[in-house]
User: What shape does this take?
Amino acid sequence: MLEAGLCNYVVLSYGHNAFSSDSMRRMLLERNADDAVFGHFGAVAGYALAARRAMHTFDTGPETWKHIAVGQRKWANLNPAATMYDLLMTFEDYYNARWIVEPFRLFDTCLMTDGGRAMVITSAKRARDLRHPPVLIMGMGQHNPSYDVHQATHLAGPTGAKRAGEMALRMAGITLKDIDACEIYDCFTYTVEITLQDYGFFGPGEGEDWFKNGTIEPGGRMPVNTSGGQLSEGYYMGLTPFSEAAMQLMGRCGNRQLGPVTNTKSPEIILCSDNGGILQTHSCIVLKRS
Amino acid sequence: MNGDSKEFWAGCKAHELRFQKCNACGHVRWPASIICPMCYSKETKWTVAEGKGRVYTFAVYHVAYHPGFENDLPYVVADVELEEGPRLLTNIVGCRPDEVKCDMLVEVTWEDITEEFSLPKFKPRH
Assistant: This one.
């Protein structure tokens, strides 16, 4: 629309009182139709079915996911806007948390948040005069396996992330080696693992090795979900990862700013993801510092 | 239940697992629909599945999202792949939740919940 001249600015926005109202719960619990007679409700269990299939297909499970929950919490502890800013998390805390829907414990699941996010998209030409340094969109990709969880064969990958990621990197003209950080849609810990796996950062079952020793944490070699993400900052749909990537590339992230402040590489290029349904839709976008 | 799945639920009442089979390509499908998702043919007939399958994947609920399930906790929701092909969302009963495994062999068992409705659930098959 911007390139066609139909408009000059596009605002992407999301706001919800998901924590203080019951609207998110109602939305998630009412859409399951015939499944409800078997006691099947909501998104936690849908993703739990996917994660369990993955545990059967390759080497993964809580031993891998604890690195994601704890790693993202460390980022949230640097972010005063994060819901979990004041709360530290150890591996022991992760394992001691109660089961929600097995194989997911409490800290495998994202937050319900009152809040919102907004981003303004415009042409590079118009962005030149704005107050903050603009961030450029290098590439985008989408792939939607669509099948409902009951019939899906992509639960343990490849999910839509594989082709969406390839498409976005091709459009950007880069490879994974050029990526400095990732902001990944993290409704559950497993979503982060399968998305990074499908993007090609590691092979099936190699996640635990890849995540361990603080890979995604402050000071790590591939920072992931640097606001704390949906697991520890707040749930604003795809705008949690997307807005954080833009803020990081603008250099507006304070104590969690990638670069010398957090002993990480100063970011030039950040990869973001979003997905919908139970791994049914996937978007990938590559952003670059101007 | 909707117009497409009415025959499935009528079958359940009679303790039969009824699915649509495509006349053109032979694909047995679920959920019920007016066209075959494989070849788009509208020609279809209802067939009865034997009720044997394996656990494709499963989840163990430790939270009741509806008060009606509080007394059942912890309970198992599973996606069972039938020998005829379709995968069906259901419950695994007749064993402890920690005994359920992916690829475990299971068979149908019927739970009559009202005069009108029976639910196909699955139990371990040896």
Chain B is about 5% helix and 40% strand. Chain B has a mean pLDDT of 95. The two ends of chain B are 32 Å apart (CA to CA). Chain B touches chain A at residues 1, 5, 30-31, 56-66, 68-69, 72, 74-75, 77, 79, 86-91, 97, 101-103, 113, 117, 119, 121 (CB under 8 Å).
